[in-house]
Amino acid sequence: MTTWYEDAFRPGSEIRGKWNGRVYVVERLLGAGSNGVVALVRRGTSRFALKAGRETVDHQSEINSLHALSLTATTFKHFLVEVDDMIVQDREVPFFVMRYIEGVRVSDYIHKHGQDWIYVIGSNLLKKLTELHRCGYVFGDLKIENMIVSKYGHVDLIDFGGMTSKGRAIKQLTEVYDRGFWKAGERVAEESYDLFSFAILMMKVLDVRDRFQNIQHSLPQNREVEQLYPILRDSRAAARIAPFLQRALNGHWQSSEEAYQYWKRLVADQKLTPSPLNFPWLKICFAASLLLFCATVYIYW
């Protein structure tokens, strides 16, 4: 069965905005879900992420939130590039264009560079959430799939479909990251809601024995936060940040700023620093410069 977007988002196809008239060339599909399809596109030499969706109400809600964020003096400034409609199968489909952020999933980054990088990544993610919360929003659907990690543990959020104004009911979630799923709180857009999801995300990344797979399928009446505590002892990296994670799981903080400061103190007190990234070319350059220096000394001595 052909999906509504299959032809429109084939690599090399063009997407033309009905109102603004800008043309984007599709490079590849980045993802597709219940609330829309996202593709990597280019206009001239610039690359963007383009999201289209048929659920007009949800789509417009996400646009409104991104527009507000794009006007703030934060790292989200100018995140939203433009909004328009496209014609697919004789039907208008709304889309919006965002900055494209290149990177990998946090689990892939940790697998490649080592678990100690979780301290840097966690700090950068908390900083990003704090910015968002100051603007009056909660991310809502924080999970591994909705964040990107790039060089030196830099973090970006990439899907804002669950972003909700503070005080309202969470509008989009993934059960295992949801505190309501674990009977640990209500599904209300509070900073503590994102912090709970943050703790689950950190634990899933560091879950070396894949315990989540069994725990999340337990009977609802038996499911509780205490089931997650053994995961904190499964790896050295998880054990070191266990004091933070337990507090986040139990709703200890009402403010992400307070949580962020605690994380920084915890990492600093334990001197938790990641192993240096392995760049072979640095060794080659150093060896070459050493040889050049020796040759120069020999010639001019």
What does it look like?
- By secondary structure, the chain is α+β, with helices and mostly antiparallel strands.
- The chain folds into 2 domains: about 15-100, 2-Layer Sandwich (Phosphorylase Kinase, domain 1), CATH 3.30.200.20; about 105-270, Orthogonal Bundle (Transferase(Phosphotransferase), domain 1).
- It contains 9 helices and 10 strands.
- The strands form 3 sheets. A 6-stranded antiparallel sheet has the order 1-2-3-4-6-5, covered by helices on one side. It has a two-stranded antiparallel sheet with strand order 7-10. A two-stranded antiparallel sheet has the order 8-9.
- Helix 4 (about 190-205) crosses helix 7 (about 240-250).
- The longest helix has 21 residues, at about 280-300.
- The radius of gyration is 22 Å and the shape is globular.
